[in-house]
Amino acid sequence: MAAPPLAGLMSRSQAAHAVELMPARITGILRSAMPGSNAPIREPVAADAVPEGGVFAPSAIGADGPALCDLPRQRLEDMAVAGAQILECYRLLGKTGGNVVAEVLRGQGEFYEWDHYPKGDVYDPETHAQYYYHAHPVSLRGGEHGHFHTFLRSRGMPADISPAPVADQREPREEGDALSHLIAISMDAHGRPVRLFTTNRWVTGEVWYRAADVIRMLDQFRMDLAYPSLPTNIWISAMIRLFRPEIEALIEARDAAMAAHHRPGGDAEAFEDHSLEVVSVLDISVDRQIGRVHAALGAPGDG
């Protein structure tokens, strides 16, 4: 049985009202503007409408993501364990009609556009992993309820990793705060993940790291906390592991798309181009991915 729809979202304008969101599927790229931007707000475009040299289209890595049959068995077994952990989180939360999104919204008051939930984000001081949940105005939401942004701060990164040599690189406010955005997880109105995506630098104010280094950071992302919800923290850590091949492909596609996104002002302008928000995206299904993992584990030759 599907979890009940999540509570609606409130705008901070006086005319705002709560709305119940229903799940929908994005097949292309969402280009939008943040509040205060003069850039036009555009509707999602079909993948085949993306101009050559423009934003990455989902078809570039296949509808189901990268092939799994060539992965090391140890990686597949870890993905299978992660899938089982996700299903266990769903089972436990479902017994009381809950879900992983409702857990981070619980006790937070009204759910407002753009605000981070829970307030102050979730940060593990031991692993230096960080995440938050939020939602855009309905005109920019592409059918989702909201999405999780996941990060790793520099204190949790391998010691030999440093920011990419790109123009106008931001300096962190404090030492150790040069955080990298890893992946965003889009959620439907029932609190289930429906797609993964990467973003341009301006979206989260991150420090930009090379794709190869961001991929290495994935091993370090682990939320070992009970706050705000142990099931949600287990779930989000396991999502990174279950969809590791897809996340790697999306991060690599992010860098390829940014390299192709030429602007008159060079790198600095491209990374601050508010017409380019979501750089790479892929629709996902937990059940389908678990099935693919089990099929790969049982393929001939896997002794």
Defining traits:
alpha+beta, six-stranded antiparallel β-sheet
Describe this structure in words.
By secondary structure, the chain is of the alpha+beta class. Helix content is 28%, strand content 14%. The chain starts with 72 loop residues before the first helix and ends in a 6-residue tail after the last helix. The model is unreliable at 11-60 (pLDDT under 50).
What is the fold's blueprint, element by element?
Blueprint: H1 73-94, H2 100-105, E1 117-123, E2 129-134, E3 146-152, E4 180-187, E5 193-199, H3 201-204, H4 211-217, H5 230-242, H6 244-260, H7 267-271, E6 278-283, H8 286-297
Helix pairs in contact: 1-5, 1-8, 4-6
Radius of gyration: 19 Å
Shape summary: globular
Mean pLDDT: 79
Fraction of residues in β-strands? 5-15%
Q: How is the biggest beta sheet arranged?
A: 6 strands, antiparallel
Q: Into how many domains do the coordinates divide?
A: 1
Number of helices: 8
DSSP summary, beta strand count = 6
- Residue share in helices? 25-40%
Helix-strand pattern:
HHEEEEEHHHHHEH
Flag low-confidence runs. 11-60
Question: For the terminal residues, how far apart are their CA atoms?
Answer: 36 Å
Secondary structural class: alpha+beta
The strand line-up of the biggest sheet is 1-2-3-4-5-6
